[in-house]
Amino acid sequence: xxxxxxxxxxxxxxxxxxxxxxxxxxxxxxxxxxxxxxxxxxxxxxxxxxxxxxxxxxxxxxxxxxxxxxxxxxxxxxxxxxxxxxxxxxxxxxxxxxxxxxxxxxxxxxxxxxxxxxxxxxxxxxxxxxxxxxxxxxxxxxxxxxxxxxxxxxxxxxxxxxxxxxxxxxxxxxxxxxxxxxxxxxxxxxxxxxxxxxxxxxxxxxxxxxxxxxxxxxxxxxxxxxxxxxxxxxxxxxxxxxxxxxxxxxxxxxxxxxxxxxxxxxxxxxxxxxxxx
Length: 277
Description:
Blueprint: H1 25-28, H2 30-49, H3 65-106, H4 113-148, H5 159-198, H6 225-243, H7 246-268
Helix pairs in contact: 3-4, 3-6, 3-7, 4-6
């Protein structure tokens, strides 16, 4: 060891944590393998059954980004406050006791370094468990808020595109109803012809009870498969965004507005050496 790196007498350098060398490559790269498998499965499902879905155009104007994200910011703040109210009463008391014991051990006349380390580790573990509980409650509330209707992507979908999806679903439904009505009419006509051949000529024809009544066009309903899947993805993304807190949403807004501000400033600033008109 070099002279400049020699620790003072009586001080032992802390041990360096060495990861175990017996971890298999499969276990080490398990998250990457799972993500790759899910992505491959999604591509296969899209190629087999969902390739007819068209692209959706999300319209976002820089001037409207704050208006669009304000409901999410407010909902995230409400979720954070609700989590604090639900978690604090039954977790803060024990955390305060551990913190008090740690402070007492640090200020004691004869300090026990092992006792201080144990108390510090116990406090860190307790806080880590509290964070897991808080995340679970936050994610549950965020899913409830997203399912209720406070969502991120739906606000950026133009109303015209949504109406196009609903109109496509209505057209498919009407086509199915027309095919069913035509099949019913053909069956009724065949039965009527058979009955007329067997009956006397003076027998009055009875009204056909199988002829379906004219159906009024139904109102568009969001039952198109692509619209349903879009709403599911929107709920998942919004719940994850809300669970991250208002600070995360605020950082997204800042990054978005900052990007457009820099782009607009570069477009308006003339190149070096040129005088603006």
